[in-house]
From TrEMBL:
This is DUF7730 domain-containing protein. Residues 1-36 are annotated as: Disordered. Residues 189-247 form the DUF7730 domain. Residues 1-17 have a biased composition (Basic residues). It comes from Emericellopsis cladophorae. InterPro entries: DUF7730 (IPR056632). It comes from the Eukaryota.
Amino acid sequence: MKALKRFAKRFKRRRPKQSQTKPQATDAEPTQPLPLLAPTAQIVPESTSLSSPSDAYGAFSRLPTEIRRQILTYAFGGRTVHIDLFWRHPLVRRSASVSVSGEGLQGTSKKHCGLGEELVEDDTLPKRWQWFSCVCHRSAEAQDPQNIAFYKFETTIWPFEDKCLEGEYCHCGGSDRPGKGYGYCFLGVMGWLLACRGAYSDGMDVLFSTNTFYLSSIPLLLNMRRLISPYEVDKIKSVQLAVGKSRLFRFEKDPLVHGLWQGTAEEKRDCALPLVCSTVPNLFSNVRRLELYVQSQLCPSRDVPVDQRVSLLVRDVMDPLEDMVRCLGAGKQVVIAVSLEAHKALMQKHRELEGAAFRWEPVVGTNGAIQRHQQFWRALGSDDNGNEMGYWLRTGWNDHDIVNDPYMMNCFGGGGGSIFDLWGYYRREVTLGRSQYATNVTYED
């Protein structure tokens, strides 16, 4: 009997632990703190004994503060930085393959950070919350716009089209930046921050106060003050938020707006848009410029009459966004972008309401050319001190189906056809005598 018990104990010790392969719950909130913007960095505990700034900072501490700040800004400031927190398989770095020309191992791919080629998800490991950060290398101009969308007729890659975290629309590594490789895609700030307390203090100040932070993870946005020091978050001056999921067809639920116009009471309560709008002012209390791109396809229920849909769009989407702008206060540069069709309907509505006071302008691309995007000013009154509050409402991603595109219809001689008129915009254009389509075009809901 004793021998049997000893055998059972040895067998139990040899069995693999079930927790190593058991999937984790995806609905759990992220709890892992930000490792200082580096994918594999370690945070120095507060109890670690470090030399005083005067001893460890060396000659750098004798430079004037303004000079030190300029040097550090040149090193890792003044950029647009992606911070990503998503539930996925861990990212692993594959060994680089030898290039066809035999020039070496490094820079065999131009994909940003090597994502999808040398930096890939390891699906043999269980999914978990994972941080990832990199410098935004979104190309200012696309050499071939058709690589972005087959209906895109412009060269500028806008922030709402950013795909740095997928390694696309960027030119990195390879012959473009010889000798730099993928290290150029990351800030490389950890060595400096861990040098001493003086370097950490100066570095964190420059890191958070001079860079523009691009965030697209709603879990990160809603839990940011738990995961990153609120003291550092308060230093952020410029933010780009791209929330929601853009797509032409609704094959899956978008947590940002699902249940906004229809659905059960529980689904409406779980809609993330109102929560995002109420979180942003408290999260970025000292922000000076905020760009918020609503990536979701805004589609109310077809049970709602067409002439009432714009009112629902204003009530359920724009009113929470405008309350957010008011909470941010005056003196802020705020840009909000919604999908093309929703923007058309809102622009038409406010043009009719405001008359001569209506302010709009085309958005200029990076090469100085006038692009197909435009924005109009939404005045929100004044604060208690008489300072004007408002924001620019800009065209976002193009949700207009290719067969409805006016350029394509003109190619066919302006003949008849049908248009998916979600907001009743094209019907009103006909009524106002401004329709760009032929008279025999029909409009569908």
